[in-house]
Structures are given as C-alpha cells and as structure tokens.
Amino acid sequence: MHHAFLDRYAYLESFVHKLDPRMKLIAFFLLLLSIVLHDVLYPRLFIIYAAMISVLLFISRIPLSFILRKARSISLISVLIALPLPFFTAGEKLFSVSLPGGFALSISRPGMVLFLNVLGKSFLSILLLILLFNSTKFPDLLKAFERLKVPAVMVLILNFFYRYIFVLIDDMERMLVAMKSRGPRMGKFALFKTLGAILGNLFLRSFERAERVYMAMQARNFNGKMHTLQSFSISGGDLAFFFCVLLAITGVRFI
Amino acid sequence: MNEVIKVTDLSFEYPDGTRALNAFSMTIFKGETVGIIGPNGAGKSTLLLHLNGIHGLDDQVPPSVRIEGIPVTRRNIAEIRKKVGIVFQDPDDQLFTPTVFDDVAFGPLNEGMRKEEIPKIVRASLKKVGMEACINRTSHHLSFGEKKKISLATILSCSPSILILDEPTGNLDPHSRREFISLIKSLELTILIATHDLELVLELCHRVLIINRGQNIASGDSRTALSNGPLMEENGLEIPLSLRT
Q: B182-217 pLDDT, tens per residue?
C-alpha cells in the first residue's frame, strides 16, 4: 500500500536537517516559548518572528506549498477555538448589531486583540512545529527525546505509533476494500453499522498485534527498558545556530 | 549426539480453556534441522513459544523443557533466550522499532553487550542476510521479503545456538522464498521450522515431527514420513507434489 509518509521531507539534506536533533529541539522549544510568552504579539513582533521562521524554512528547502497546506489544516482548529473570543470578552465595543428579541451581538476591542493574538501565536507555533517534524527524521527525534530525559514510556508510545500507524492503515484499507467489494451500494445506516464493525475489528486486531509484538520483544530479552544507540555529535554549526536563536529571542525582548 | 532441546510431558491450556498441548514430548539433537508440521491449531506455535519461556513459566510446576540441559525457568530465562532465537511469522511483529539498525541492535543491547561492539554486530548480521544496504532504512518502507530477511538478522545478532522459524516462507513470492531457503541452508545452527510448506521441509529438514491435537504423533526421516499417505491424511496433511508417483 502507498501512503504519504509522516516525515516525507525529513530526508532532505539542508543545514536545518543536519543540525543535531537535541540542539534543534531545545532551540525550537525556546523559540516557541518566546513567541507564546509575549503578553501581546504586536504586529512588529509578529513580523520579526515570522521573518526568523521564514529564514529557517527557506534554508530547509521544504516546499512552501507543503508547509502552507499543513499549516492551513492545523490552523483551522485554533481559529475554531479562538472564534468566540471577540464576542465574549468585555471592553470597548468596536461593532454591535441588535438582534430580534432584545439580544445584541457585539465585538469588543480587547476581544479582537486577544483573538488576533491567539491566532498569530498559534500560526507561528504551528509553522515552527511543521518545520521541526519535517526537518528531523522521526527516529532521530525520538532518540533526542530519550537523551533529553523525556519519560521512557512516552518515547516508547511514540515509537510504536510511528512504527504501527502504517500497518494499521493497511489493515483498515484491506477491510474497506473487502467491505466495498461485498456491498458496493450500501445505505447510510448499513454503511455506518459496517464502519462501526470495522473500527471494532481494527481495535481487536491492534490488541492482538500488541500481544504478538510484546512476545517478540520478550523473545529478545526485553526487560521493560528500551536501549538504543545513537551517534549524535554537536558541531560548531550546531552551537552557532543555538546561540543565534538565543541571541534573537533575547534581542526581541528589548524591542 | 547431544540433546539440545528436550521436552517431556508438556501440557498447556490457554486461559479460554483451549488445550493446545497434551503431554507433548520431543528431543532435538545438535545440528539437526527439524520440520514441525501439522494442521492449523495443532499446537505448533504454542510449542515454539514454550521453547524460550514465553509460555509455561509457572514456578509451581516442574519445568518440562530443557535447553542444552538447562531447565526453562524464570531464573534461567535470560540465558535461555540468549540460546534460543525465534523468528515470528509476521515480520511486522518482529520489527517494532522505527529503523532497521535499532531492530537488529535490540537483542544485543538487551543482552548487555558493549555499546562499541553493537554497530559491528549489526553490520555482520545484516551482511549474513544480504541486507547491509538497508541498515539506516525505516522498517515500514521495506518490502515483505526484505522485512522477513531483516527479521532473521534481528535474531542472528543475538548469536543463538538454536534457531526457531515459525512459518518462514508464508506469503513470500517464489523468488524471495528461494532466497530465504538458501539463507537458512547457509546457517550452521540447530534449526526448528514450523511450517505448512512441505516442499521446504523436504528440502531442508533431516527429520520431521508431526503434531496434531497437541500431541507428538510421529517423528522420523522427512522423506519417509512425508510419503506415508495414510499418516499424512489422518493429520490434515497431504503428500507433497514432488513425492507423488
């Protein structure tokens, strides 16, 4: 079966891709914190951060169309979450419409600022995360998490997620094909009923697979602790990048 | 000849009450390649899982399995699993880490080998199965045949003295099957193969063991046993095409 891989562009060879995953993770995390921790993300701050991220995106050579497409679908969630803010925040009214029945719909200035603030911060954060996940191979990212002492169980769960998501998708596709070949014109009710059965089946299959995987792990002397080898090394370029990011986020504080 | 696997009166019941093994006994000698055949649900896979203590580690019951003279008990389990390597039927179960390197390194790392030695061991094991070029690839990008060979490498990296293969040629295309058979032939280990591929048994195994309803029905020279029509039919099998007259 053919899937779009999760980290399709992580195998490019740019400066951003070649950075030590641990350094990259810490630097991106600091940059993310810096964006999120501003009280208000004024337009000039937004432009400065956007410029920084754009430079990184440009160096990484990940296609802009891919990044924007990803960002659009993820941003939709933050738009939905932030949407009520202009209407339900108290303060100076920018705009008001009276509705029948004595109700009024109004947009407040502080609400609007908050709305744009949430939107701007989440958009920049999303760009940064897309860049991180598409410039680092997922296995390397997991190893970086491990070295940075992220709890082993979480790393293990992510590890299995990455390894088995495609196997599960394959399983599901096979069941869907089997469904379509036996019921090409199903009514809505029958369709939902069958989809429910397929999901249940998928759950049972995953459960059984988990048992078999655990047996295979035990057979190779697994004792609850995952050991991996990594060959990360921090170069001059990594340090230079890290200090540039540090300098930039400190500099922004004085603007 | 040295006895490397000795199973005496082994019985096993699954929690749902299915009796998978019923007073099963067998002996495997050093250097043998033995085929274990029988119908679906005969107890083949259950038997294999007892040989390295995945099933049957009950401290209340005296151990029924001995590997190179060592009883399979909770205390000896690390040593037993070092000696007995199992290649499972579905390579997606066997390859559970994101990259080929990590998977092949998993066993040696758990066995506490020195970290400096590991890359060498991984490379050597992948070389044995002709998959050196895949060392940095992610497992889900591989073909079924490649996954199968790498599954074998994940076991060879632990340097077992006994290799157990569960349905090694299932789902393989003829070319990959041939490659995999040549690979198994090249290994100088005691090998146990549970399979429905009777031509494979005929080609690789010195001896065959027929298992049905959890019991050891017959054991003997592969060619003689596989050409015994009534015996094969009674046990849900058939004479392989190449032995039919």
A: 999 999 999 999 999 999 999 999 999 999 999 999
CA distance A92 to chain B (A): 54
How close A173 gets to chain B, by Cα (Å)? 16
Q: Is A159 on the interface with B (CB under 8 A)?
A: yes
pLDDT tens digits, A12-47: 899 999 999 999 999 999 999 999 998 888 888 999
Q: Which residue of B88, B111, B115 is in closest CB contact with A221?
A: B111
Are the beta carbons of A162 and A142 closer than 8 angstroms?
Answer: yes
The whole-model pTM stands at 0.84
Residue B21 phi/psi, 5-degree rounding, is -130, 140
Number of helical H runs and strand E runs in chain B: 10, 10
List B70's β-bridge partners, or say none: B67
Write the pLDDT tens digit of every residue in A64-105.
999 999 999 899 999 999 999 988 888 888 888 888 887 888
Superfamily, domain B3-90+161-240: P-loop containing nucleotide triphosphate hydrolases (3.40.50.300)
Using CB atoms, pick whichever of B98, B154, B158 lies closest to residue A163: B98
Nearest to B54 among A215, A227, A229 (CB): A215
Domain ranges for chain B: 3-90+161-240
A residues 221..240 contacting B (CB < 8 A): 221-223, 227-229
Q: What is the ipTM of this complex?
A: 0.89
Nearest to B67 by CA among B49, B52, B57, B87: B52
For residue B137, the chain A residue with the least C-alpha distance is A139
* CB neighbour list of residue A71: distance below 8 Å, 6 or more residues apart: A123, A126, A127, A130
Q: Which of A215, A226, A220, A224 has its CA nearest to residue B78?
A: A220
Tally of CB atoms within 10 A around B18: 12
- H or E segment to which residue B66 belongs: strand B65-67
> A145 to chain B nearest CA, in Å?
14
CA-CA distances (angstroms) from residue A227 to A10, A38, A181, B156, B234?
Answer: 24, 39, 45, 18, 48
With beta carbons under 8 A apart, name residues in chain B contacting A166.
Answer: 140
Please, what's the b/e burial string for A241-255 (b: 16 or more CB within 10 A of its CB; e: otherwise)? Answer: bbeebeebbeebeee
Task: Please check whether residue B151 is in contact with residue B166, taking contact to mean a CB–CB distance below 8 angstroms.
Answer: no
Contact A156, B102 (CB under 8 A): no
Q: Which residues contact A176 (CB under 8 A, 6 or more apart)?
A: A198
B96 to chain A: closest CA residue: A163
